[in-house]
């Protein structure tokens, strides 16, 4: 009987504590209101609308026509390009997800060992590519398919190539090139979160670890550093999953939409093609819903793996 009473009391206590903290930090919540209005209007509402819209035939001119599971059936059974997009997205997710996540952690770890000036400098160097879209112009100049392209010019001068390679139009190179550029631009918010996590670790924990028998930096990393950065690591992982599954902008700006023989065509590119080019919003919504479900499953997996470090 006491157990049944204790549960509601705990729940009431949590709500009372939450409301107390809201009132104590009301200034912060007031400042969040403008962002939340735009976030709900342009993110939450479209995501909620995409599910029922995925069961319709909607071209933005006529009223939506209910077609049931027809869009999803066509997507997985009759749409060969979507199967190519799934393969490319998984390749992108593998290379620009876990690999980029580990790379962000290692670079942030190395930067954390530098003096304050170098910390600031190298943090900016690695973060800057994720802030600008003009980077595509630079890469198009480097990868230009004529002898004036920087990469072709260097390789031809070294005798490695006899004629210019078509880096952004030849299907042999397109996917690899887009992955490299995506990795170069992947040091975004997740990288900054990991950097902040390193700086927030209490230095006295390392002294206590040395007293307890920790002998080298690798033991410090796995016994002190990583367990102390649980929230930052989880945030970076979620951001990296979102980036790797929704990759498409890099390929679209670098190799075009669609790319040659759909060599760099991802699920996001497929949704963009049907939504913004063909205006088949029902079919595009079905694609987006499949992508959302895949990202949700991946986030659940990451929460399960890193959840033990949150506390």
Structural notes for this entry:
Helix content is 71%, strand content 1%. By secondary structure, the protein is an all-alpha fold. A two-stranded antiparallel sheet has the order 1-2. The longest helix has 28 residues, at 26-53. InterPro entries: ABC_transporter_permease, MetI-like, MetI-like_sf.
Detail the topology: elements first, then pairings:
Blueprint: H1 2-24, H2 26-53, E1 56-57, E2 65-66, H3 70-78, H4 80-96, H5 98-112, H6 116-127, H7 135-142, H8 150-157, H9 174-184, H10 189-199, H11 204-212, H12 217-228, H13 230-245, H14 249-254, H15 267-277, H16 281-306
Antiparallel strand pairs: 1-2
Helix pairs in contact: 2-16, 4-5, 4-9, 4-13, 4-15, 5-10, 10-13, 13-16, 15-16
Name a few traits of the molecule:
single chain, 311 residues, mainly alpha, MetI-like fold, two-stranded antiparallel sheet, 1% strand, disordered N terminus
């Amino acid at each position: 009987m006491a157990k049944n009473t204790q549960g509601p009391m705990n729940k009431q206590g949590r709500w009372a504590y939450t409301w107390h903290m809201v009132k104590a930090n009301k200034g912060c919540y007031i400042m969040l209101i403008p962002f939340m209005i735009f976030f709900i209007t342009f993110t939450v509402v479209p995501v909620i609308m995409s599910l029922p819209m995925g069961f319709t035939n909607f071209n933005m001119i006529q009223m939506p026509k209910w077609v049931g599971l027809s869009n999803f059936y066509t997507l997985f059974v009759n749409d060969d390009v979507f199967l190519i997009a799934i393969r490319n997205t998984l390749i992108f997710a593998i290379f620009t997800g876990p690999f980029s996540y580990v790379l962000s952690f290692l670079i942030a770890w190395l930067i954390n060992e530098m003096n304050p000036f170098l910390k600031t400098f190298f943090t900016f160097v690695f973060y800057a590519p994720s802030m600008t879209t003009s980077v595509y112009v630079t890469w198009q100049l480097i990868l230009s398919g004529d002898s004036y392209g920087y990469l072709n010019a260097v390789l031809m001068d070294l005798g490695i190539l006899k004629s210019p390679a078509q880096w952004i139009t030849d299907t042999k190179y397109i996917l690899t090139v887009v992955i490299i550029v995506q990795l170069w631009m992947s040091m975004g918010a997740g990288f900054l979160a990991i950097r902040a996590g390193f700086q927030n670790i209490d230095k006295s924990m390392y002294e206590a670890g040395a007293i307890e028998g920790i002998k080298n930096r690798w033991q410090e990393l796995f016994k002190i550093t990583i367990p102390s950065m649980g929230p930052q690591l989880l945030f970076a992982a979620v951001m990296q999953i979102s980036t790797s599954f929704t990759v498409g902008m890099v390929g679209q700006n670098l190799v075009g939409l669609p790319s040659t023989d759909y060599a760099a065509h991802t699920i996001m590119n497929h949704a963009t093609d049907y939504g913004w080019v063909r205006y088949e919003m029902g079919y595009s919504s079905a694609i987006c819903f499949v992508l959302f479900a895949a990202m949700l499953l991946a986030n659940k997996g990451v929460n399960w793996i890193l959840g033990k470090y949150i506390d």
